[in-house]
Amino acid sequence: MWMNGHRASVRGVLIVCAVAIFAAMPVRGQEPQVQGQPIPMPWPMKIGLQSYQVSMRLPVVDQVVLVPDGATYIDEISRWDLRGRWPVLIDDAKYAPMFVRAFKPARVVRRASVGSMPVGRAEREALSQQAILRAWSMPGKDSAAKTPAEAYASVGFQPFGAVFASMDDPAWTAGVALAAGRGQAAFWVDGSLGQPSDTLGSEQFRALAKQVEDAVRSTGLPSMQLGDAIDAVTICLSMPLKAEPPRGSRAQAVPQGIPSKAGEPVATVDGLCRNEDGSRWAVASNIFGDEVRSAYVAMSSLFLSPRSAWLVNTYASDGDWAKYGLANAAKLLRTAQFDVFELSGAKASVVGWLNMLMSGCKAEVLFMNSMGNMDFFKMWQEVECWPEDVPVLHHPLALHFIHSWSMTSAQVRETVGGRWLESGTYAYAGSVYEPYLVAFVPPEVVAARAADLMPFLVASRWLEGPVDATWRVTLFGDPLMVLPPPSQPQVARVPPPELDAAKGEMDLRAAARASLVAARGSGAAMDYAAAMSDVVRSGDDALAVQLWSLASTKGDDVRAACASSALGPLFRARESDAFLDAYKALTSPTPQEQDMLWQLWTQQLASIKDAQTLGWFAQQVRPVRPFVDLGRLAPEIKRVSGSNAALEVVGAWLLKEKSESNRTRLKELMAKIP
Fold first, then answer.
1. Cα→Cα distances 225→210, 250, 373, Å
2. pLDDT band at residue 12 under the 50/70/90 scheme
């Protein structure tokens, strides 16, 4: 069984109605009022408003806490209460710095480990349940509530979403945080459903849908119609993103005007949370990934307030394509005081796109229209780009991506969707199969809905009418995440408390300064490396660039120790030569470090005049699709060293290439060189 029946009781925790904090907050079922008169409000705006109000009324402590492991993560979340909460991330070199750069906290804290997680699943679930419960308690006040369900009854408040997670699946870190952060009902589940690239069988799908429905019904809350208590469901575990079309009473008609063939899959989450007649009773979404990324996804959803929006449209401006234009969406977002950058028409060419990649994507929200498949996307005039051209992100990103097949194998970085997720996308509306254009909500509509505080992923879903059938657009992330317009009041922050030495808390910026002082005294590579790592994690790119300038003069061992940490700040600062110097100090570059190299330098290859440097780049070609880098490098080798040199470089790759599709591409490239 995917879920044990006796454990299908509510595991979530409800927003505790502390009078001083929530006195003015409407509960579910109440309409906002003006002069005592109710204001009718569509259900998606209700849940968005409630999510926004929860964020506004729970104090946010102006700090980010980095923890080393899952046990410490639960322990830190258990310190949340009604006096304040704050982002908690599992310390890493990629996602934690991205979040810190976006959140800009007054302080970054690193905690020592509390030890290992309990071995038994029941003990781990109990820890999670207690963390959720404590997050909605008021210290110093007696409470008879011993379980979340009792806490619900004691405060007379209803959850407006449900979370499903397994303590055996690493995405539990998202489930615990979202249940605690949003006041959702949470259910612990058993077993494995499969990988995101798998397809769930029809009978498996029916069983899953019933188990989700039964669990939500077990809360005793009205939930089988939109506008009832539970209107959003988040499944935080690895699962097939595609499913065979459900049979029998749950079968859905294909959306009008869309051709289909028997047996072609649909998006799993789009088929969940529907009644026997096909109508929705909630919008479902999925979060999968390791503990580090899943925690990052949840914290980005709970704590970030994006201010910059990019819009990229590669479609023509006539026919049905015009309905998906981005000009009106850009106007709406500007009116809401987002910082808007627009790339459309001829400007949305491959050249325009590659120019944009040179120091990474600074967007926090991105609307993008493209044609293609799981392993390529097309820019203006249908010129192809590849997963290698998915940008390295400066900040966590919410993405509305009109494109076919992008999420077909979303756990694989060599697909378009997989690369977006790996790069740091925490909310994603995209397709698992060929959906056809009408399956997507036009960006103008999504932008208008989001500006009215409708949750971003809910706004990306058709919610009524004949097109709202079970189809092929999937949702990744927190379905209750809203994008409060910069023109609206933002969450106020309270100063952080004194550090707790007993819990092994350390101010990361102070630690970086101490490491730098030690490095200047000792000259030791390990001290310089510690200082560089801590500076980057604290979000100070400018200081990291300065520190690299110092470290690079201290010898090869110091350069090698600091190079990996320095690459990101140098890339984002567009310090091309310094980046190249740091890259050459690496022993074995990671795939993302390779992406940064090519995204920063592809458009600068034409400025290189010596054969030796171009030859070095030929040795850095990314191996999965060598024709991508070679297609941009070979013309420059030909320019400097002649056709024979370019043919020799490409021919060397052809000799060792085993993939037939790559061999075909390489042969086509060689034919273009003379």
1. 15, 16, 35
2. very low
- Residue 372: CB partners within 8 Å, gap ≥ 6? 378, 384, 403, 404, 405, 406, 416
Token readout for 142 is 């007696």
Number of H helices, E strands in the chain: 25, 24
Backbone angles phi, psi at 527, to 5 degrees: -70, -40
Residue spans of the domains in the chain: they are 5-287, 305-464+472-476, 505-589, 608-674
Closest CA to 302 of 410, 184, 429: 184
Give the residue from 169, 248, 179, 241 showing the smallest Cα distance to 3: 169
Q: What is the pLDDT of residues 192-242, one digit of tens each?
A: 899 999 999 999 999 999 999 999 999 888 889 999 999 999 999 999 999
DSSP-assigned letter for residue 346: G
Cβ atoms of 634 and 650 within 8 Å: the answer is yes
> The whole model's pTM is what?
0.94
Q: Considering the domain 305-464+472-476 in this protein, what is its CATH number?
A: 3.40.50.1460
Beta bridge partners of 385: 377
Strand ranges for 248-375 from DSSP E: 266-267, 283-287, 308-313, 339-344, 365-369, 371-373
For residue 196, the 8-state DSSP code is: T
Written as six digits, the tokens of 587 are 């022993």
